[in-house]
Amino acid sequence: MSAIILNGKSFGARLRERVAEHVAGLKTEGVVPGLAVVLVGEDPASQIYVRNKGIAVKEAGMNGWEYRMPAETSEADLLAKVEELNNDPAVHGILVQLPLPKHMDDTKVINAIAPEKDVDGFHILNVGKLATGQKAMVSCTPLGCLLLLRDHLGDLSGKEAVVIGRSNIVGKPMAQLLLGESCTVTIAHSRTKDIAEVVRRADIVVAAVGRPMMVQADWIKPGATVIDVGINRIPAPEKGEGKTRVVGDVDFESVVEVAGAITPVPGGVGPLTIACLLANTVTAACRAHGLPEPEGLAV
Ligand code: GUN
User: Fold this and answer.
1) Which of 85, 164, 185, 294 is deepest in the core (most CB within 10 A)?
2) Which atom in ligand 1 lies closest to the alpha carbon of residue 110?
3) Residue nearest to atom 8 of ligand 1 (CA)
């Protein structure tokens, strides 16, 4: 039997509608949530991400500012820009697009962002708060995955969850979020012995390793919910010479026959990241002004 396809486009659109409704409510209180995005250098992929973020911010009715700095910018100048944004009361969220040029220390720059404005959830204080069950800004992609899982499964408590991948941006915060929902959580990674056996225990699988189509049908317990965070570009000779296509970390064609529900790639988790960035910005604005936060859009 074929799995339910979890449509991230429509779920992401619903999240964005809820954000926009909350923004409209905040405006009646005289508050307009604002997101500042800083891009250093000319990386083409980063330029596309930043442009898309800018469009989404405007569509949600929020203020958006984009600061483009040349690749040769000194770390001190970038830190000065971050400090200026930290001190600007109209700015509720700050995102410094990663990766930064090689001469900069990503960790130092991220930790210079005021934690309450760190809408990426990368600041060490937010990481620590998430790990200790305190209200935090949470990394957008895992937050989106959690909201999707809650929407599909309801109460997650007691479920076996296996997160494949241990990155700071997805794997580790995803595991913390699932633990916060009282799941039994395992993190599998490149050194895990008999990874198929480990993943077969899971009611919930989150794949975030960056290895095209690694997760196979015989790794999946029948009926499990499978969330594919991978975005991998692979050659697609069937589309013509030199053409490529995007696939996830899960072998969708085979896993869809075993899982109970699955996110496709593209159109699964992808649209949730920007939706959660908007949600985090609204949450940050509410916290800054002591106003009620949108329900169910933060942890
Ligand atoms: N580069 C790619 N994705 C992201 C993201 O979610 N946040 C930041 N800051 N940089 C990124």
Assistant:
1) 164
2) 9
3) 97
